[in-house]
Design goal:
It contains eight helices and seven strands; from the N terminus they run E-H-E-H-E-H-E-H-E-H-E-H-H-H-E. A seven-stranded parallel sheet has the order 3-2-1-4-5-6-7, with helices on both faces.
Length: 267
């Protein structure tokens, strides 16, 4: 085995597609055995496991409904029994109803917070004993809706902001145990989920809208799942042992740009 994560075990929630799948593949290429969790798409999960195994690492998929945090404990017990340990937890999965707050149903609000906050607490409680005194890494995948207002994102943004608060608290509590806790906060990343949000949530033409966004981004390109995965891979490695309690924005510089820089643009 070789690579910065050789001999380690990683768990990635929502790892069957999109950013989660990209993260799991990156960690596997870095040497980690990987367990992904997924909600319902058995075929996508099986395909992701096959891709992970093609890297030469052990892989498994666990079905997990994070909206029911009581399912977390038994799933992590199975992971511990099958792999003997967990070194890296990536809390990637999220879900919401992309609607204005005035149109949100109570069950949608509860589900959003259950997946993003309640399950994050439950997973941390379940995974730390499996780290068993070894250096552990917990990484939350958040988003810029945690600090920027976006159409249809108010409830999810609030949940992610709460989870980022947990990152700081957990970093303080778990640091003495050798566990670091950080968040990566992606901006616009080209995925199936972002395409759904732009077309269905905002009613925009995806290519035209994202072309305009790319031109407003200082590095003049879109983000990819691999960009996010590379940052998670760093935070999961020994090289990041002195980084904890941080929420690192990865957006090509988009959120540092003042709207006033666009005053000279043609409408």
């Amino acid at each position: 085995m070789s690579g910065p994560l050789a001999g380690r075990v990683a768990v990635v929630t929502g790892g069957s597609r999109g950013i989660g799948r990209g993260i799991a593949l990156h960690l596997a290429r870095d040497g980690a055995d990987c367990v992904i969790t997924y909600r319902r798409n058995d075929a996508a999960a099986a395909e992701a496991v096959a891709a992970l195994e093609a890297t030469g690492r052990r892989a498994r998929a666990e079905r997990l409904e994070l909206a029911e945090p009581e399912q977390v404990g038994p799933v992590f017990e199975r992971i511990g029994a099958g792999f003997g340990r967990v070194d890296v937890l990536v809390a990637n999965a999220a879900a919401t109803a992309f609607r204005p707050v005035l149109e949100q149903k109570p069950h949608n609000v509860r589900r959003t917070f259950a997946i993003t906050v309640d399950a994050f607490v439950a997973m941390t409680q379940a995974v730390v004993p499996l780290m068993a005194g070894r250096p552990g890494r917990i990484v939350l995948v958040s988003g810029i809706d945690s600090f920027q207002a976006m159409g249809g994102h108010s409830v999810l943004g609030a949940a992610k902001a709460a989870a980022e608060g947990l990152v700081r608290g957990l970093a303080f509590e778990l640091g003495p145990l050798g566990v670091t806790v950080n968040a990566v906060t992606p901006g616009f990343i080209r995925t199936d989920s972002s395409a759904y949000y732009v077309t269905e949530g905002l009613g925009l033409d995806y290519e035209r809208a994202t072309d305009r966004l790319r031109e407003a981004t200082p590095v003049r390109r879109h983000g990819t799942p691999e960009d996010v995965a590379a940052l998670v891979g760093y935070l999961a490695s020994d090289a990041a042992s002195f980084v904890t309690g941080q929420c690192i924005v990865i957006d090509g510089g988009l959120t540092i740009t003042s709207p006033m820089t666009r005053m000279g643009e043609e409408p």
